[in-house]
Design goal:
Elements (H helix, E strand, L loop, with lengths): L4 H11 L1 E5 L7 H10 L4 E5 L5 H11 L4 E5 L4 H10 L3 E3 L5 H9 L4 E2 L1 E2 L2 H9 L4 E4 L7 H8 L7 E4 L8 H5 L7 E3 L5 H5 L3 H15 L1
Parallel strand pairs: 1-2, 1-9, 2-3, 3-4, 4-5, 6-7, 7-8
Length: 212
């Protein structure tokens, strides 16, 4: 199934939390995604911070097609093509790169680019994008900054990521324009490497209970 940006935003709005995942072994995505889905989060953002990303996306798309898959930390045209070919539903970037946006649009691959200031927001709007990632959220002024930006840019649909945790996530989600928040504290690399699915499941249940 191919999703439009509007459909992705609708799904994210129901789920409210996006696990931001860095993997060294592609095969770890299968038990990890199963643990997340069973505990209320049928979505993953698999970051291109390691060489395992494209293979992890491919494996997950094949084995668990119902899970919403974002390709994260996409920085190059090559990674966009890899993400598309592997079966990612959409792309998330840390910053705003016109070339990457244009390529995603040409490939009919939804993209949520990273912004944290008016200049980047206006560049996104100019290219027809109103769904954006606010990154790095806490370091860029957090909730106060988002509220300030929504004064002139009330049409934005925002996914804050960076510095978000179980203590502050509800502060972000209380803002009407915040669709979902990205977070990694419950899918820490150390937990994945230890294959500690029980603890990941517990932390996932904790955050799901908090945001619902």
């Amino acid at each position: 199934m191919t999703y439009t940006t509007a459909q992705i935003i609708e799904k994210l709005g129901q789920i409210k939390v996006v696990p931001v995942i860095a993997l060294d072994k592609a095969e770890d995505i299968l038990p990890l995604a199963q643990t997340l889905a069973e505990n209320g989060l049928p979505v993953v953002e698999i970051t291109f911070r390691s060489g395992a990303a494209a293979e992890a996306i491919r494996l997950l798309r094949r084995q668990q097609p119902e899970i919403l898959i974002a390709a994260g930390t996409v920085l190059t045209a090559e990674q966009v093509v890899q993400a598309k070919n592997a079966g990612a539903d959409f792309v998330v970037t840390p910053g705003f790169n016109r070339k990457i946006v244009r390529l995603c649009q040409a490939l009919d691959l939804p993209i949520t680019p990273g912004v944290n200031n008016p200049m980047a927001i206006e560049a996104a709007l100019e290219m027809g994008l109103s769904a954006v990632k606010f990154f790095p959220a806490e370091a860029s002024g957090g909730v106060k900054m988002i509220k300030a930006l929504l004064g002139p840019y009330a049409q934005l649909q925002i996914m804050p990521t960076g510095g978000i945790n179980v203590q502050n996530i509800t502060d972000y989600l209380a803002i009407a324009n915040v669709v979902a928040c990205g977070g990694s504290w419950f899918v820490e690399k150390s937990l994945i490497e230890a294959k500690n699915w029980a603890e990941i499941g517990r932390l996932t249940r904790e955050v799901v209970a908090k945001v619902r």
